[in-house]
Amino acid sequence: MNALVISAVLGVVMMFSGILLKQKSAVRNVAIAGMVLLLIVNVLELCGNVFFNIDSKGMIEFDRFALLFNTIVYVSAILYLLLSARDMEKVGVNYAEYLALIFFILCGITLTSSFRSLLILFLGIEIISIPLYILTGSDKRNLKSNEASLKYFLLGAFSTGLMLMGIALIYGAQGSFDTTRVSSFQGTASPLLVAGMVLLLFSMAFKVSAAPFHFWTPDVYDGAPTVFTSFMATIVKAAVFIAFIRLFDEAFGTLQSQWQLLIAIITVATLFIGNITAVFQQSVKRMLAYSSIAQAGFMMLALYAMNADAKEGLLLYVTAYSLATIGIFAVLIKMKDYTFEGFNGFAKQQPLLAATTTICLLSLAGIPLTAGFLSKFYMLKAALGTGKHLWLVIFAVLMAAVSVYYYFRVIQAMYFKDGEVQKIDVSPAFKWTLVVVTALVVLLGVFPNLLLNWYYF
Amino acid sequence: MTITITQILFWILSVAALFSALMVITSKNPVHSVLWLIATFFSISGHYILLSAQFLAVVNIIVYAGAIMVLFLFVIMLMNLNRETEPQKNRWIKMAGAIAGGCLLLVLVASLKNVESASTIEDVKGGDVGFIKRLGKELFSTYVVPFEISSILFLSAMVGAVVIGKKE
Amino acid sequence: MPITHYIILSLALFSIGIVGVLTRRNAIIIFMCIELMLNAVNLLLVAFSKMHNYAAIKAAADQKLPITEAILNTGSEGQIFVFFIMVVAAAEVTVGLAIIVMMYRNIHSVDVNFLNRLKH
Amino acid sequence: MKNALNIVYLIPLLPLVGFLINGLLRKHLSKSMISVVGCGTILVSFALSIVMFLQVKNGDGGTIEYFNFISVGELTIPFAFQIDQLSSLFLLIITGVGFLIHVYSTSYMQEEKPEHFGRYFSYLNLFVFSMLLLVMGANYVIMFIGWEGVGLCSYLLIGYWFKNNEYNKAANKAFVMNRIGDLAFLIAIFWIIAKTGGVNYGEVFAFAPKLSGTDATIITLLLFVGAAGKSAQIPLYTWLPDAMAGPTPVSALIHAATMVTAGIYMIARSNVLYSLSEVSMNVVAIVGLATALLAATIALKQNDIKKVLAYSTVSQLGYMFLALGVGAYSAGVFHVMTHAFFKALLFLAAGSVIHAMSGEQDIRNMGGLSKKIRITFITFLIGCIAIAGIPPFSGFFSKDAILLNALLVDSHDGSFSIKGIILYGVALFTALLTAFYMFRLLFITFSGTFRGTEEQKHHIHESPAPMTIPLIILAVLSIIGGLIGIPDAIVKGGDKFTEFLSPVIAQRAGHPVSHSTEYMLMGLSTVLVGITIIVAWRQYRNYKRKEATGFAKVLEDKWYVDEFYEKIIVKPLHNFGGFLKNVFEKLVVDGLVNGVGRMVNYGGRQFRLLQSGQVGSYVLLMVLSMVIIFLVQFFLRK
User: What average pLDDT does chain D have?
Assistant: First the structure.
């Protein structure tokens, strides 16, 4: 509860800081300090110090899983702000407002990681989505940004409609929005419940950009200002995934036999489309959009398996994925040319940035000794644990191999090709933050228990 | 089998709602679409009253038909959109859309046809759940946390409208 | 009134909304169709709310149990949810129309078929 | 030294530290500092490996667990090292040969800029680290980590001179082919987890007898595909010759002495599983033999000094797989060891030749070098003798062990099966081809008259000591290295090697052949190899470039016998080699690999079209998918 209240308050603080503070750097410092505060209060709650004891009538529950995930989100958000907050200035004049919206989104994320009621899930998802529509369109003069924003908005509102219809049908069957009451039924499940569950599956699949509901993702990620794409593709996506797994664990855990096959189909489609289409992209930004679909396919394996390993593994996966992707985007934002050719000869100009980007890419590709490998390993092991559908695991491994191709195209361009050297200037602080991100990626790749032990003790 | 007044009203309102909804999507002129949508909302409000949800019936008319749709109308008028400005989609695409939507309806209805038809809705003494007093109490006791949370939603929408709308 | 009537009615309205999204090109009309979908959901929620309320009171009456406040309150959550949907819809409309107006200012059209700079 | 196992982590850690120091500080360190760090770490690792080896010899090997790497449900994968006979042997080879190559590199790469020099050494150290991890790991996952690591390093090192686009392509090819193998390996690991519930060698092998025949076959075949990728077997071998694009010491280290033997190590390590599947054993043997033969014939035709050696490596690896396939695991590992000595020697000597020739690699432009670069010549000669298999050089004993075991396959009473005779015959023929092309290479390069430009001639000089000393050491090892595996027939109880490995590698329970038969076979192969060498000598000692002198003149200069050989043996062989290179490799192998790529390509393009950019079509596709999913959920499921 600490983080929920503080993040909402911080959002308001940011709104006013735009009026009261003239310097953009001051606004940024307030935001970073606020984020650190958020992390601290959340860690305090993880250690048992609750400041705001608000009775939510069982609709919100901050358990270990939620608190740990929130910690991951806030750490990622701090790193994100340190790396990319400066670049938001280029997007438009409403600097403080962007940061306020980011705090509101974090408030929504706090809700979606801890909901116990479908009402809170709905509100949380909307609090995440509405600011995102705006951030996507924040580059107002840019037609691509406009287009992305409108597409995202229309498709997002459509999926909200699906979600609400699903919730309504579930309410009809169970008479409650409470996840525990949704999961308790006698005898066979009512068709209302099953149909509602399937509709919710669609809308959640839409939000995490799983095929065949992924169509918005490449366009929106491509069109949005890159600094916000970075945020959307990492922290937000991770949060929705956590909501997804919570929902299907707590509300529909008893229906597992009903949805497992559907999830398997969606997983295969997502892995296939994400990986295969990523191969043909010319722009690194768009490639990363498809890669986020492909990574979502891997995370879907956790949903498919839905055992203790899967939840644990998903935490590791979202951490690995978010850190690596934030690291890559931070560099990408600085570039003027987003095509693969734009990276030619990058290693010569910025050896350190090239090295960190390489390690992040290796992690996404799942090369051992990076967090990406272990997290993929966890996912596959969890899927194996179900004892069914060995082909799903084999397919996922095959697709992981395909993914190496497009990640390595970037590495190859940076190291093995000569080209027009783009001048980019970065501060030493930026470099050091990137080194920290990369170090975390490698550290988690060797000692995953540094993270996962928090889940248990 | 006797036909009660409730049933008659149900059928009339249902036909009205469906008809005006169809008109929303078939009208060429956007202004007409808006007006038909308002008609749909009125029929749905009628349903709410039949279901003794007076509070929602009123809110629906005030908020939806009154505020939101006027906003729509305002924007349409502002842009001066009329019949000529909206090019029509290819006939085949329209057909495909209609068929896809129809299929979805069929599948949904077919999968829900087994719902226990014993569940019915009738008026009963004390069935005043939809009255403002009861809902108000609930909203400000049990649902006070979500209620406060929705304020965050409004704040962000407000900030958003400023970000998008403000001249640079 | 059997609940299936209401289910079918609101599914029909919902599907009409979907068909509208599929067949129209005007972004505002598409958005209105989405509002229609939301209203179909609202109607269904209210119907279910009434159904649960009736079932609870009837069950209590059948078993000759005292009709408590809690029983009378059954089903209120459905209507509260509708209230929240309206809240969210209002917020969505603000943002949505702002985006559409922004689009119109730039390309002087609200035709979604013009949105095809981003593809493949 | 009882507790030497406690510091075993230093063996891989030191090269890693070397990698970090050289990688991070490469701009600030001088070349000599980089050399000291690069070589020093490996030297210490080598010293520790000797300690480990001695300890294992006394029977004090074991498994050391550090921490729990992965724990998912019941499955725990510890980060653990296993030091036993097999791994300690490989440790010696990797660090020992690796150290010599590092020393050699300090001189060979001297002309690079300090920055690149540091990069080179950091990659080299990283490579050694990965390879050590691969060998020391106590479970398949750690092995896989090292496995990927060596693939990555070889990618980086092949593309080291990245200015050249061809080299980039070679690096990519190597990486892709390796990835195909890695993929199979990964699937095999998951299969093992699914069936046995563990990945630690101890657990898996203890569980192995309970595996069903099909599972054992699938696992071992998948592992074999992995091994084929790394060890360049049909159809995944084409990357290795292309990988010669990297600097020569890299070719020596990675593509001859260590990385490519990872596949052999993996199969030898999994020998318990392989013994369960007759089918897999046959596949391994046949693919190995086919690769050996194919690569040997292609090698006949090559004119690039490094390409000849590359194909020879592929061929020798095929030999090792043959040994594994017939169940003679220790013979295979023995050949790994001797091959590491003489192939590293040959590559480094070739590097010395290239160095002397100012970067020239085409042997048609060489000739008559024997007098000018004496040490290189003699060491190269020793390498050739060793690989050709003339006693008592090391190659003879290992190759002889493989041949004998191939002959004895399926034999239980001392008589030879048809399969054994065929395997033996083909293997022996390949051995003769090996002798032929190696001596062809030797004679064309070192004897006759010099055919290069005046400038090159002027420049020829012997390499400096840091290059020649490793050559001499390796030459000595190539001569005496085979002596630890002298067959029983010559010295009673001489085969210390097999005896040493016996705790980890099950021995074949077969009837030993009588000593007289064994003598006869040895004699036969030695005599045939001798004849082949003489043929090669006559053919190539006065090699002249055909383009330069014209065909008639060549005939004039040669004896009638030469012409005879030329027509009957050499020409057809050459043509065949050319045919294989051009038709089989280009069309069949590359075609297969590219074909898969093209299919993916086509499919991907079609899928991209779905992303039309139109909101309407997105919604339509979503609605249709929803209809289909609803149908599946409510009407089609069971």
Answer: 83
Spatial separation of the C-alpha atoms in residues A366 and A396, rounded to whole Å: 12
Asked whether the beta carbons of B151 and A7 are under 8 A apart, the reply is no
Q: Domain extents for chain A? A: 2-456
Beta strands in D61-200 (DSSP E): 62-72, 75-83
Closest-CA residue to D8 (of D50, D59, D58, D68): D50
| Residue B48 with chain C: CB contacts under 8 Å | 43, 46
pLDDT digits (tens, 9 = 90+) for D231-252: 888 877 878 887 787 788 888 8
Answer yes or no: do B121 and B135 share one domain: no
Is pLDDT at C88 greater than 90 in this prediction?
Answer: yes
What is the phi-psi region of residue A187: left when phi exceeds 0, alpha when psi lies from -120 to 50, beta otherwise? left
Mean pLDDT of D171-194: 83
Residues 6+ apart with CB under 8 A from D348: D100, D101, D104, D248, D249, D252, D467, D470, D471, D474
- Whether the CB of A426 is below 8 Å from some CB of chain B: the reply is no
Number of domains in chain B: 2
Q: Is the pLDDT of residue A354 over 70?
A: yes
Confidence check: pLDDT of D509 > 70: no
Check whether D378 has a pLDDT greater than 60: yes
Q: CA–CA separation, A352 vs A439, rounded Å?
A: 13
Q: Judge whether A256 is closer than 8 Å to chain B, CB to CB.
A: no
Domain boundaries, chain D: 1-138, 307-554, 560-636
Confidence of residue B86 (pLDDT cuts 50, 70, 90): low
How close, in Å, is residue B66 to chain A by CA atoms?
A: 21
Query: To the nearest whole percent, how much of chain D has pLDDT over 70?
Result: 88
In chain C, residues with a C-beta closer than 8 Å to the C-beta of B119 are 2-3, 51, 55
Say if C117 falls within a structural domain.
no
Q: Which long-range contacts (CB under 8 A, 24 or more apart) does C58-65 make?
A: C58/B124, C61/B124
Grade residue D134 by pLDDT with cuts at 50, 70 and 90. Answer: very high
Q: What is the pLDDT of residues A144-158, one digit of tens each?
A: 999 999 999 999 999
Whole-number pLDDT of residue A426: 86
- Whether residues B62 and B143 share a domain: the answer is no
Say whether C22 and B97 touch across the interface (CB within 8 A): yes
Q: Would an 8 Å CB–CB cutoff place B96 in contact with chain D?
A: yes
Q: What is the CATH number of the domain that holds B10?
A: 1.20.120.1200
- B54 and B136: one domain? no
Residues B156 and B73 in one domain: no
Compute CA distances A382 → A293, A385, D225, whole Å: 20, 5, 25
Q: Domain check: are B98 and B152 in the same one?
A: no
What pLDDT does C86 receive?
94
Residue B10 belongs to domain spanning? 5-127
The reported pLDDT for the residue numbered A319 is 95
User: Is residue A18 predicted with pLDDT exceeding 90?
Assistant: no
CATH number at residue C100: 1.10.287.3510
Residues B148 and B84 in one domain: no
Interface of A with D in 19-48 (CB under 8 A): none
Q: CA of C72, closest CA in chain B: separation in Å?
A: 7
Tell whether the model's pLDDT for residue D412 goes beyond 80.
no
In the prediction, which pLDDT does D518 show? 81
Are B81 and B15 part of one and the same domain? yes
| Exposure string for D575-589, b = 16+ CB within 10 A, e = fewer | eebeebbeebbeeeb
User: How many pairs of residues across B and D have Cβ atoms under 8 Å apart?
Assistant: 27
The pLDDT of residue D155 is above 70: yes
Domain with C17, as residue range(s), is 3-112
Residues of C in contact with B25 (CB under 8 A): 16-17, 19-20, 23-24, 29, 33
pLDDT mean over D590-608? 71
Neighbours of D607 (CB within 10 A): 16
Question: Considering its fold, how many domains does chain C have in total?
Answer: 1
